[in-house]
Amino acid sequence: MTLERDDRSLQALIKRILREEITKGVWRQGDRLPTEPELMRRFSVSRITVSQALRDLVTEGLVVRRQGKGTFVSSHPQGWTNLGTLLQRMPPPRNHELGHALNQLVLTAPPTEIALDLQLEPGDQTWVITRTKMVDGSPDTWEQGFIPASLVKQGALVEHQDEWKDRYYIEILRELTGQVVRRCRAFIQAVALDDTLAAAIGEEPGKPTIEVTRLWHNETGQPVLLTRNVLRPDGTRYFVDLPELPAESGEEG
């Protein structure tokens, strides 16, 4: 396939074609995309054009790049839509008592989709911190954080585990590893509560709710933390800042 050569089209067209192939299932979760030389031959373009198109897809969260391994379809490609910058959950009213119950702290191999997002090698492990956020003593949100074990000094997490139950995950990451996050991409999806999650937040199994997954990157773009939040169905509200729409020519408002 040869693309028409004009200044604006090459990179955008390659990105669009690959995006469409991913969203239509030609390339599925965890699949490795063709190499840059293969894409250069396919589209008859330069390496820099292919690299720029792939970088755009990484920024959009559709693919992840693993050094020395290639480019892989992210675990969150289907139905992904950029809603702008996810800010935070609407805060609870003032004068409410907030806290956390630490449920589990383990060193283990993460699920496949999380290993892909964190760009881990086969056999790599993560520290997993699971806890329940409490409001006035009642369960409100189930939370889980994954930190690559290779970043954490041996024994550092377990020695002071009581300190971690009320700290933000990014604070825990910084204190244990020195990693500072610079970028976060959030994914929001509807889920049905299984028995474990329902028990953790005091709800009935099978009830629909919202799960928010955040993938945090350091200043070099490396993913260093993945967090998951499952919210109680009642009273859950998130807000986003959407990009400002351009004014139509000749129209106001």
Characterise the protein shown here:
The chain is built from seven helices and ten strands. The N terminus and C terminus are likely disordered. The longest helix is centred in the N-terminal third of the chain and has 14 residues. Helix 2 packs across helix 3. By secondary structure, it is of the alpha+beta class. The strands form three sheets. The chain has a six-stranded antiparallel sheet with strand order 4-5-6-9-8-7. The chain has a two-stranded antiparallel sheet with strand order 1-2. A two-stranded antiparallel ribbon has the order 3-10. The N and C termini lie far apart (44 Å). The protein has two domains: 64 residues, Arc Repressor Mutant, subunit A (Orthogonal Bundle); 156 residues, Chorismate lyase-like (Chorismate lyase). The chain is globular. Helices cover 25% and strands 32% of the residues.
CATH topology of the largest domain: Chorismate lyase
Structural class: alpha+beta
Q: What is the number of E strands?
A: 10
The topology string of helices and strands comes to HHHEEEEHEEHHEHEEE
Looking at the structure, what is the overall shape?
Answer: globular
Compute the number of structural domains.
2
- Tell me the CATH architecture of the largest domain: 3-Layer(aba) Sandwich
Q: Residue share in helices? A: 10-25%
Percent range for β-strand residues: 25-35%
What is the mean predicted local confidence, pLDDT?
80
CATH superfamily of the largest domain: Chorismate lyase-like
Biggest sheet details: 6 strands, antiparallel
